[in-house]
Amino acid sequence: MTTILQVMPKGNILIVDDNKSIISTLEILLGPEFDVVKGITNPNQIPTELRTGDYNLVILDMNFQAGINTGNEGLYWLNQIKKSHPDISVVLITAYSDVELAVNALKQGATDFISKPWDNSKLLATVKAAIQLNFSKKEVGQLKQKEKGLKLELNREQKYIIGSSPQLMKVMKLVRKVAKTNANILITGENGTGKELIAREIHRQSLRYQEVMVDVDMGAISETLFESELFGHVKGAFTDARENRAGKFETANKGTLFLDEIGNLSFHLQAKLLAAIQNREFMRLGSDKPIPVNIRLVCATNKNLEQMVADGLFREDLLYRINTIQIEVPPLRDRGDDIIVLADFFLKKFASKYEKHGLKINQAAQDKLLNYSWPGNIRELQHTVEKAVILSDASVLKPEDFFFKQILSAKFDDDHLTIEEMEKRMILSAIEKTAGNMSTAAEKLGITRQTLYNKIKKYGI
């Protein structure tokens, strides 16, 4: 068996100092610790070096011309580096008398400074920390590109907010009002009403629309992975932490963080989330270094958080933090003719998908759709229309082509059933429990989706 070892990069360093002995000393000290250590004496070579070399850190002297000790040259080149390569760490070399100047340079983007004469161990620690900062920035940048790619993919899927009912228009008016602020938003509503779409629309209309929106399903994160997923971790923080990793908060910096199903978060983890939101900073798991964060927070839930507060299941202070503005998404049954508008949208979508062009819904079927309560909301309507399209043999869909949850109610209370009757009831029960999701129902029944459709047709379900 061949074992492949992954070699982790140690970092590449560019030293810029007009004193060749300083460069030689640093090359001897840093050479064994890092992948590349290169020195140049002329700062005018910096742009070319940064274009041609993959550097993580620049160690930059503050003065180059003889007799000039203002530090302005160092500040000039610091700004040039940050303009062209904002993620590269810059550590300044300065004399004791220039410490105040170096502190001012930190405000302009320098990572740290090294005082002459230096202590070797402190210098190594400073350099390693600066390179690690660059690694972290690159990691966050890659994660953001991945999230942006996902955002583009979602756009290609063409997920729209569809409808013109007064109830929906009221929501969209509120969205327009709050989107350009940084207020924390809580989106509430039943399952399947489109809370995620509202969150995306808030981000799209916000001043952060060019940044990434990061989604987190709070109900899908286990308690043991909560801190690692949201705040990231450093190498060795726990058994499987083989490398540093940025969390969702760090990835969402300057953008929008969407915490879906916030009501599913356990009480003791709510305190950790509250601290990060309140302090606008967090620490990676296994680290004691605070990381500042600038995010727009949007949360969503189908639960009654006020009642959960009263029952001692949700922190009142966290509710106040996430609930600067609340947007209640109306259930589908309250949106009147939007039901037909959405049904037509899904009809065209699935007619194209399954190559059944020209399908229409007759008036009797529309009346049936309007009179149903839609407990599963838009998600249930989508599944209902998809199933009708798949099973239809005619170009016009009639009332009998649409199957609802209330029709699918079946109880196993008869001991004298035939195998076919039992199979029919099992199918009905599976469809009911999965809110009409045929793929999930087929999986629960242990059959393929096509087999399920064949049996639905056979039993006239």
Automatic annotation (TrEMBL):
Biological process, per Gene Ontology: phosphorelay signal transduction system; regulation of DNA-templated transcription
Keyword Electron transport included in the entry's annotation: no
InterPro entries noted in UniProt: AAA+_ATPase, AAA_lid_NorR, CheY-like_superfamily, Homeodomain-like_sf, HTH_Fis, P-loop_NTPase, Sig_transdc_resp-reg_receiver, Sigma_54_int
Protein species of origin: Draconibacterium aestuarii
Protein name as catalogued: Sigma-54 dependent transcriptional regulator
A Pfam short name: AAA_lid_14
Domain Response regulatory: 12-131
Gene Ontology MF term list: ATP binding; sequence-specific DNA binding
Modified residues (4-aspartylphosphate): D61
Domain Sigma-54 factor interaction: 161-390
ATP-binding listed as a keyword: yes
Highest classification ranks of the organism: Bacteria, Pseudomonadati, Bacteroidota, Bacteroidia, Marinilabiliales
Keywords, ordered alphabetically: ATP-binding, DNA-binding, Nucleotide-binding, Phosphoprotein, Transcription, Transcription regulation
Superkingdom assignment: Bacteria
Family annotation (Gene3D superfamilies): 1.10.8.60, 3.40.50.2300, Homeodomain-like, P-loop containing nucleotide triphosphate hydrolases
